[in-house]
């Protein structure tokens, strides 16, 4: 009898390939400030999915930049949020406002000039907040 392959590896992630709908080759957004770059690097290291950076300068007084990303599960979203909060503290922004951390369906981190939205994929699809801000908004996606 052939051995049965596990559905998940020991660390809890898919054993063979990336989760459905996620393209590892998608370019990482480009930040224009050290804070944006630090947050995007942390998201990249934590394997956040479908990262989008939206430039809000001149479009909103609430922030200069919005970053939207997804995690694979509640636990992944929570871990990413925790790591981003540590990164913000290292950048001298230890008093960032956080909403949604107990449930980890949608976590919002307000770091002043940068707002980060972390979603589970189903919740992100439902709310589709990128579409609200995407009209005539400059998305910085490709790093040259």
From TrEMBL:
The keyword Repressor applies. The lineage of its organism: Bacteria, Pseudomonadati, Pseudomonadota, Alphaproteobacteria, Caulobacterales. GO terms for biological process: cytosolic ribosome assembly; negative regulation of ribosome biogenesis; negative regulation of translation. Residues 1-36 are annotated as: Disordered. GO terms for molecular function: ribosomal large subunit binding. Functions as a ribosomal silencing factor. Interacts with ribosomal protein uL14 (rplN), blocking formation of intersubunit bridge B8. Prevents association of the 30S and 50S ribosomal subunits and the formation of functional ribosomes, thus repressing translation. Keywords: Cytoplasm, Repressor, Translation regulation. GO terms for cellular component: cytoplasm. The gene is rsfS. Belongs to the Iojap/RsfS family. It comes from the Bacteria. It is found in: Cytoplasm. This is Ribosomal silencing factor RsfS. NCBIfam families: rsfS_iojap_ybeB. PANTHER family: IOJAP SUPERFAMILY ORTHOLOG (PTHR21043), MITOCHONDRIAL ASSEMBLY OF RIBOSOMAL LARGE SUBUNIT PROTEIN 1 (PTHR21043:SF0). Its main location: cytoplasm. Interacts with ribosomal protein uL14 (rplN). InterPro entries: Iojap/RsfS/C7orf30, NT_sf. Residues 1-11 have a biased composition (Basic and acidic residues). It comes from Brevundimonas vesicularis.
């Amino acid at each position: 009898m052939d051995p049965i392959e596990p559905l998940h590896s020991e660390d809890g992630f898919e054993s063979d390939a990336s989760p459905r709908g996620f393209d590892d080759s998608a370019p990482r957004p480009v930040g224009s400030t050290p804070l944006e770059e630090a947050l995007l690097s942390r998201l990249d290291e934590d394997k956040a999915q479908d990262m989008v950076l939206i430039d809000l300068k001149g479009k909103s007084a609430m922030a200069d930049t919005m970053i939207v990303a997804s995690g694979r599960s509640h636990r992944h979203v929570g871990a990413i949020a925790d790591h981003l909060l540590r990164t913000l503290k290292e950048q001298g922004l230890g008093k960032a406002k956080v909403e949604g951390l107990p449930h980890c369906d949608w976590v919002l981190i307000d770091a002043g000039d940068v707002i980060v939205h972390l979603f589970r994929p189903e919740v992100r699809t439902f709310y589709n907040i990128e579409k609200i801000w995407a009209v005539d908004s400059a998305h910085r996606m490709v790093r040259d």
